[in-house]
Design a protein that fits this description.
With 68 residues, this protein is mostly helical. Helix content is 78%, strand content 0%.
Length: 68
């Protein structure tokens, strides 16, 4: 029960960060790999936001499972 709650909270936080600040995720994970890169590509931003949306949906499913 507590593990599912922890997973839900972790996923909702990660999902919201990915939805709202995809450039922050890029700066942490990918910027150091590219010399002279200023901004992430449009496709990268869309894919990170899609991943954030999926994380948020899974988090909501975790919270729903707790309510059963």
């Amino acid at each position: 029960m507590y593990m599912l709650l922890f997973l839900g909270i972790l996923l909702i936080v990660a999902g919201l960060i990915m939805l709202v600040k995809p450039k922050y995720i890029w700066a942490i994970t990918e910027k150091w790999k590219s010399e002279g890169a200023e901004d992430p590509s449009f496709v990268y931003i869309v894919s990170i936001r899609l991943g954030g949306f999926i994380c948020a949906i899974i988090a909501l499913l975790c919270f729903y499972a707790l309510s059963l």
